[in-house]
Amino acid sequence: MDAHQLSASACPHDTAKNLPTWIEFFLVLGQVSGLEIGYAHAADFPEFYARFPEIDLVYANPLDALRIEDERGFVPVAMPDNYDEVVFVARKGSADGLADFADRPLGAVENQFATLLGCLLLDEAGVRNGEIRYYPSWGEVLAALRRGEIEHALLYKDFYDQLGELSLEGVRTVQVSDARRFAHVVMLAPERAGLRPQLLQGLLRLPEHPLGRLILADLRIGGFAPFDSTEPIRALLRC
């Protein structure tokens, strides 16, 4: 592969909502940065992880950014300004506030930043959560809540924002976080690390590009900022 050709992939949570926009994102990023970027789609997380050995560029959630750094030595490049947040939800009639989550079974998805953030925010509020019951997806967490299998749950805010009134029937929104801790991270393969300054400049210039600005607006991203180390994310894990 030519030194200026990159294969890219993005978090399935994001591409599930607007795949065409993400394809356009990488095309325009290539134009702005002077790099040739091809998109390698991953329909779900197993496929996303299976692509780690072969991709050069990835837009990953905070925990997956650590994973690809550990597995392949990827280097962080930039972080967007749309932070990953969590929504605390409960069956209607079962919770008025976070205090009602104390010592209760809590539905969530394992190894997801929203789950980590939710548990940390409960701890910071002095609320000790009970057993965490893991489900394969946020949709299945919500389904379990609506079935009455659990009374309390965490939902990834990006997933929650896509839900209509019918999907949330019988569900109480207890609190939506505004922690602004971390967002997804653009990560670059170590073999391509020499292209990091060029790629970073392209990401920073996207809001100035007419089509780039429209793409970012559709992705609810105002812009990117340099992100040089994943250590702050690792510090959060140690809390």
UniProtKB/TrEMBL annotation:
Protein name as catalogued: ABC transporter substrate-binding protein
Lineage: Bacteria, Thermotogati, Deinococcota, Deinococci, Thermales
The organism's place on the tree of life at top rank: Bacteria
